């Protein structure tokens, strides 16, 4: 059973609800909207995100319209984010300072410039300029990022209270897909480190999957099975479908232990990943150390240890003791029942 919440993500928009512990929240209302102004070098003009064909060294300014439909002025914060893959197996455009994959040569955030804050007057629309400057060298493959918009947070002091109220905000993302050539680059995957871990207090085995090429994975399926190092019985398994990966990114694919406790030892992960006509297969061993198993089990929620073997051994010993006791009692009974020897 895969244990992670499925996040809603798209190239068009993402709605995120912000909340903080020990705060009171207002009901969110839609205060602004964003629209991409599609330029002439858009590859697919039916799309509402940017899908641009550019040249090496080209500098281009694209525009986004910010519309404020309320009666009050608002301030919109904008970020040019490099696309990553989150641990749900979904392309993510909302992380402003992500840990980038080591194979990524040209992060979208490094070639894009945009004003961080834009004031949008009440009942009006403002055009926001976004400047993209491609590197001088020809680049095969795609560069993927997102323009991330959110209303600037406003804090209000509550009368007769020390609490701070933070209004709920909506956030949007407009995807930006860039390419220079028509050369088709296929994604390629690697299985990196495998290790025990926890998600939401539940034990999992985490396998890091990496897309090493400047190409997207759009319909990724993953099958994973865990065995003892030389065993044939499946201990745990997980299946993921309709996953997506950003170019040159990695994410942690989790195999849920379904409330089982970690046991120290050497194990083997058999994994298969498919995307269209591409297939990747791995067989890789990993070790769970006693110390880390103990530490994770101590903090896991409802982690269950399989005591079947202990019960069998204890039952066998108890049965053996019972047989010995019955034998001795029987022997004593026979001795007491014999006639005493006669004396002459």
Describe the protein in words:
The strands form six sheets. A five-stranded mixed sheet has the order 2-13-10-4-8, with no helix packed on it. The protein has a four-stranded antiparallel sheet with strand order 1-3-9-7, with no helix packed on it. 12% of the residues lie in helices and 43% in strands. The N terminus and C terminus are likely disordered. It starts with 31 loop residues before the first strand and ends in a 7-residue tail after the last helix. The chain is elongated and about 105 Å long. The longest helix has 30 residues. The protein has 344 residues and is mostly beta strands.
Low-confidence stretches: 1-28, 305-310, 339-344
Cα(first) to Cα(last) distance is: 85 Å
- Element string (H = helix, E = strand): EEEEEEEEEEEEEEEEEEEEHH
Number of helices: 2
Count the strands? Answer: 20
Largest sheet: 5 strands, mixed
Share in β-strands: 35-45%
Q: How are the secondary structure elements laid out?
A:
Blueprint lengths: L31 E6 L12 E4 L5 E10 L5 E9 L1 E2 L5 E2 L19 E3 L2 E4 L3 E10 L8 E10 L3 E3 L6 E3 L4 E9 L9 E11 L2 E10 L5 E12 L7 E10 L3 E8 L8 E11 L2 E11 L1 H10 L8 H30 L7
Parallel strand pairs: 2-13
Antiparallel strand pairs: 1-3, 3-9, 4-8, 4-10, 5-6, 7-9, 10-13, 11-12, 14-15, 15-18, 16-17, 16-19, 19-20
Brief descriptors of the model:
about 10% helix, five-stranded mixed β-sheet, four-stranded antiparallel β-sheet, mainly beta, elongated, about 350 residues, disordered C terminus, single chain, 2 helices
